Amino acid sequence: MLKAGVLGAGHLGKIHLKLLQQSAKYELVGFFDADKEAAKQIEDELGYKSFPTMEALIDACDMVDVVTPTIYHFDCAKKVVEAGKHLFIEKPITQTVEEAEALLALVKKHGVKGQVGHVERFNPAFMAVKDMFDKPMFIEAHRLAEFNPRGTDVPVVLDLMIHDIDAILSVVKSKVKSINASGVSVISETPDIANARIEFENGCVANLTASRISMKKMRKARFFQRDAYISVNFLEKKCEVVKMKNAPKKEDDFAMVLTNAEGKRKQIYFDNPKVNNNNAILDELETFADAINNNTTPIVTLEQGTEALRVALQIIKNFKSL
Length: 322
Description:
Layout: E1 2-7, H1 11-22, E2 26-32, H2 36-46, H3 54-59, E3 63-66, H4 73-82, E4 86-90, H5 97-110, E5 114-117, H6 124-129, E6 138-144, H7 156-171, E7 176-184, E8 193-200, E9 205-211, E10 218-225, E11 228-233, E12 238-246, E13 256-259, E14 265-270, H8 280-294, H9 302-320
Parallel strand pairs: 1-2, 1-3, 3-4, 4-5, 6-9
Antiparallel strand pairs: 6-10, 7-8, 8-9, 10-11, 11-12, 12-14, 13-14
């Protein structure tokens, strides 16, 4: 079992602590949080061992899980990697692309594994259809949340939209060609609502909308590709796949058949895969353990986390140029 520790014991940090303790692939050694009073309360109430310093925790671990506010990601990750320990780091990977690239260089230098916590890659609905994507050419994503003061210190793009950015980049095997975006600040000092149109070199277009002042929650993406439509409901953990094929000469009485202007006939059918419920955070942590133990590539690499950050920051830059 890999000895694991958590840096940062806020809302998400507590969830990671609980799951690492439950996991059969890790031995949770404890956590460090800079807020001494909060750390003592967590230790007393939840029973997790609180380490006196960040360095002491890192020394006791094989893998360190960084769940601090983003502003501290690079400094914490740098210490983890320079100590020769494997790194799991929450999204976004760092505050800047320069920090992310410096972290990539450090990981390579010290020969350790790294994974970014883009948890929607492990959403069971996305997992159920990920092998069905075949050059999608239009993608539409909506990620709407009710207002919560936690997280409003960063633009909605880094808070919410980056989930969809990462998922889309993992599906579209092409470089980004151009980005157009707009954002509006309603309650916060940074944009609360954002829309981005991403064009890829292969012609694919992705239209992303994110809001953290919505009256209802929504986390849904739709992918359109040749002869197929794939819908992923990340919130309800459901998916829908609609495919088309050439209509048979002899049709079933209940077959759904369309005829286009050229007279070609296509049959519509549903090919919905089974969605296996899971705990996405536990899965991302445990697959990282597998990558360490088997010396394989993590499912969400630091390079992929860097690209998601690069696109997110380009979207935010477009806001400022309006």
